[in-house]
Amino acid sequence: MRVILADGQAKVRSALRLLLEQEPEMTVVGEASAADELLSLASAARPDVVLLSWELPGMVVGGQPKAHPVLPALQALDCKPLVVALSGRPEAGPAALGAGADCFVSKGDPPDSLLTAMRNLCAGGAR
């Protein structure tokens, strides 16, 4: 499973990378710190999954996440990556799913929750 990490905080990306590098079936193929960087990287790296911070710079307008330009652009790529939205605010889940994310995981959940969600999503191919 080829994964891109998209989060504005380097420490979060680093922690996610460390977690995923322990999983033999997962390979981090890139990191993005902003929405425009993510779209360019995803087009080139062709990931299976994008771990997308719901508060990614370039997606927040007036203090509120506005993922509408990012999610359709990701879904329009030839590789059609699955998108796992992440947020430290569990209440952001319904908005992320309503905007088109395939799955939502709170950053406060145990790491195994993220790994399980990613495996289940890829195994089922559910959108």
Q: How many H/I helices?
A: 5
Extended strand count: 7
**Estimated radius of gyration:** 13 Å
Main sheet strand line-up: 2-1-3-6-7
Explain how this protein is built.
- The structure is a single chain.
- The mean pLDDT is 89.
- The protein has one domain (2-122): Rossmann fold (3-Layer(aba) Sandwich).
- The protein is an alpha/beta fold.
- It contains 5 helices and 7 strands.
Task: Label this structure with key terms.
alpha/beta; Rossmann fold; 5-stranded parallel sheet; 7 strands
Structure summarized in a few sentences:
By secondary structure, this protein is of the alpha/beta class.
Helix-strand layout with pairing:
Blueprint: E1 2-6, H1 10-21, E2 27-32, H2 35-45, E3 49-53, E4 60-61, E5 64-65, H3 70-75, E6 82-87, H4 93-99, E7 103-106, H5 111-124
Parallel strand pairs: 1-2, 1-3, 3-6, 6-7
Antiparallel strand pairs: 4-5
